[in-house]
Amino acid sequence: MPNLPQKTFCLYTYGCQMNEHDSERIAGMLESHGAIQVETVEEAEIAVFVTCCIREAADVRLMGQVASIKNIPLPEGSTLSKRMVCIGGCIGQRDGDALPGKLAHVDVVFGTQNVERLPYLLEAAMAEGGHHVEVLEKSDSFSTDLPSKRDRAWSAWLPITVGCNNFCTYCIVPYVRGRERSRTLEDIAADARALVADGVKEITLLGQNVNSYGRDLYGEPRFADVLRAVSESGVERLRFATSHPKDLTDEVIGLYAELDNLMPSLHLPVQSGSDRILKAMNRRYTAERYLALVDAVREANPDVSLSTDIIVGFPGETEEDFQATYDLVKRVGYSQVFTFIYSPREGTPAASMTDDTPREVIQRRFDSLVDLVQENALEQNRRFVGRTLPVLVEGASKRDDRVLAGHSPHNVTVHAPVPEGLDAASLAGTTVMVRIDQARAWYLSGTVVGD
Ligand code: 5AD
Ligand code: SF4
């Protein structure tokens, strides 16, 4: 058993919710070996980076961040000769042995498949010095039995699959997270019950494509069964991320009308509204099919808020292709859209496609989409004014500790003044009823009317 008594560590987490979940496992695991989590790098003898390589910007940011801590002295009293710098996640997986060559002061490199090896690698690096790199090609197992230290006691990630089999032509994920593997229904249901017994109010099921859950284990997707089983745990709020339109079944859509604790929000990445581009992306649906899914979801439950991901400037995107995306976004009326400029990732098929659209043209398309998204979000939020919504409180708002912040069932941020005699911190993790008075593009504000 590695021993890291009283060693202080801080965590930097980039990228998706899977990484956030991995970070919670890393924190729990290091603490179980005696280490102590601290907030700032100045207090930390160990810095752990859980990295993302989905776009180039994420790579560049990591390199800058790692370099910037190089000259920060160790905390007073440390017995180490240098701060241990550990890089895990998708860049660790992708670059492995090549990373210490790029960043000389890195001590430990681990991958997406062997998070549980970090304490061992750290102990060796502290005792022997030098670089300790260990990355596994792929793993058949799914190590979820590590202790997790949840960032918010009342909200938990529950991974149901890892990896991805889709190979969208722009995406690096299948190369760094491996093939899709599902956990058994029994394991997932048992975890959900344990989380609820531990006081968890909100469970978010995680997977690169939750809709294809179970294909490897049961020969057919059984995501609807997962939703039913986790719903039965009695958790107050059930969510999931992320979904591939090609695998979203009528049965899953129907559950929006059936399960009270399945929250009325759906993240359904469309990527583009042009069939030509969707084909080049290997997405395996058309815009028409996507819109039919949206209509079916709204028919099952008109209150569902929709969000999506869009890539602007995929190789060969014409003005007409972009217009199709713009029109689709307008037609759906999303509450939130994550817009990305295409970033070529080495080793993916799209990286070798001809890409001759000028940068300024892509930027102009991107900016016009962002404007539309903002208008849509405000319009969507206006439908809540006058309604009273249950809000799961997260604590004080960033700007004002007399204002509480939380999320509505639709996953919209809600602000409200903290009621007289209470404080925001003690309300965290509870659900209060808020009458919505005003809508903005990115949040709603209102008044607490009860709990
Ligand atoms: N360039 C830009 N955006 C990308 N995404 C994935 N790969 C790339 C890339 N190479 C976006 C997709 C995905 C989201 C998580 O990141 O929209 O849904
Ligand atoms: Fe990447 Fe496509 Fe898999 Fe999502 S579904 S992780 S975009 S390959």
UniProtKB/TrEMBL annotation:
Which keywords does UniProt give here?
Answer: 4Fe-4S, Cytoplasm, Iron, Iron-sulfur, Metal-binding, S-adenosyl-L-methionine, Transferase, tRNA processing
Give me the Gene Ontology terms describing cellular component: cytosol
Signal sequence bounds:
none
Q: Which cofactor does it need?
A: [4Fe-4S] cluster
Q: Which residues form the Radical SAM core domain?
A: 150-379
Q: Note how many cofactor molecules are bound and how.
A: Binds 2 [4Fe-4S] clusters. One cluster is coordinated with 3 cysteines and an exchangeable S-adenosyl-L-methionine.
Q: Where is the protein found, in the record's own terms?
A: Cytoplasm
Q: Catalytic activity annotated for this protein?
A: N(6)-dimethylallyladenosine(37) in tRNA + (sulfur carrier)-SH + AH2 + 2 S-adenosyl-L-methionine = 2-methylsulfanyl-N(6)-dimethylallyladenosine(37) in tRNA + (sulfur carrier)-H + 5'-deoxyadenosine + L-methionine + A + S-adenosyl-L-homocysteine + 2 H(+)
Main localisation: cytoplasm
The protein's job, in short, is: Catalyzes the methylthiolation of N6-(dimethylallyl)adenosine (i(6)A), leading to the formation of 2-methylthio-N6-(dimethylallyl)adenosine (ms(2)i(6)A) at position 37 in tRNAs that read codons beginning with uridine.
Tell me its family.
Belongs to the methylthiotransferase family. MiaB subfamily.
Assembly and partners? Answer: Monomer.
| Name the UniProt record assigns to this protein | tRNA-2-methylthio-N(6)-dimethylallyladenosine synthase
Organism (species)? Slackia faecicanis
Q: What is the lineage of its organism?
A: Bacteria, Bacillati, Actinomycetota, Coriobacteriia, Eggerthellales
